[in-house]
Design a protein that fits this description.
The structure is a single chain. With about 250 residues, the protein is α+β, with helices and mostly antiparallel strands. The chain folds into 3 domains: about 5-75; about 90-190, Immunoglobulin-like; about 200-245, no CATH class. It is about 45% helix and about 25% strand. The protein contains 7 helices and 8 strands, in the order αααββαββββββααα. α2 (about 10-20) packs parallel to α3. The model has no long low-confidence stretch (mean pLDDT about 75).
């Protein structure tokens, strides 16, 4: 407020403003004294605000200088991602219910040691299909092997059965019936869904089939383009054709 605005207020309003600013016993001041007190308080606020703004501008300049130095350092430094890491490992990622992606790396010291055993190394991925997460590879339902080269570092793997658990080994083949396990991945689950193994139930129960369709169709009635849904429908069609033949 300006001095003119203070002068336009009643003494009661001036006393309320002065009390709000923390001044005690305001009733002992006359009108002119109250206006003078409020004017001093206002000038102090303006001065504090200017000081704070100056400090913030100074801090902002320091930050800009720091940011410029930081950007300059980033420009001068080049960070090269190494082709290999000092660790032998393999990871398995699920892409969809029928495909997984495996990627791996072999410690270069380990690789050189392997190359001393045979000049033409043979590597392969051994994929295990298991009933549950607690199943050991020795008790796997099935397994298959994929030959890979020493320079390979990734591979897409076709998963035979949705609703199973999978794990993959990176194995080095030394000779006839001679192999060495380099590393083993964690386990992943290929989702099967509730209806995957209930195609016969869907075929025989119209209400269940309607419930299934309501969850896989959009508002216009189009069925979702999902690989599992397509398999369920294909299995139902195959089952229906088999029944008709009989």
């Amino acid at each position: 407020m300006t001095v003119d605005m203070y002068k336009s207020l009643s003494i009661e309003e001036l006393q309320q403003l002065t009390t709000r600013e923390g001044v005690k016993a305001v009733d002992r001041y006359n009108r002119e004294e109250l206006i003078e007190i409020l004017e001093e308080i206002w000038e102090e606020k303006i001065a504090d605000r200017k000081l704070n703004n100056d400090i913030m501008r100074l801090k902002g300049k320091k930050y800009d200088i720091y940011r410029e130095d930081l950007n300059e350092n980033y420009k001068n430094n080049e960070y090269v991602i190494p082709e290999h890491y000092p660790k032998t490992y393999i990871q398995l990622l699920l892409r969809d219910p029928y495909w997984a992606y495996a990627y791996w790396d072999i410690n270069q010291f380990d690789l050189k040691t392997l190359l001393t055993k045979t000049p033409e190394p043979e590597f392969f991925l051994r994929v295990y299909e298991m009933e549950s997460k607690t199943t050991e590879v020795e008790d796997s339902l099935s397994s298959f092997e994929i030959p890979v080269k020493a320079e390979d570092s990734s591979w897409y793997i076709n998963l035979p059965t949705p609703g199973r658990w999978y794990q993959v080994d990176l194995v080095y083949f030394i000779g006839a019936e001679n192999e060495e396990l380099l590393c083993r991945s964690h386990m992943i689950e290929s989702p099967g869904g509730y209806w995957l193994n209930r195609g016969e139930e869907l075929r025989k129960d119209p209400d269940a089939f309607k419930l299934f369709l309501s969850g896989v169709s959009d508002s216009s009635g189009h069925i979702s383009d999902n690989i599992l849904i397509q398999k369920i429908l294909a299995d139902m069609e195959e089952s229906r054709n088999s029944s008709n033949e009989v």
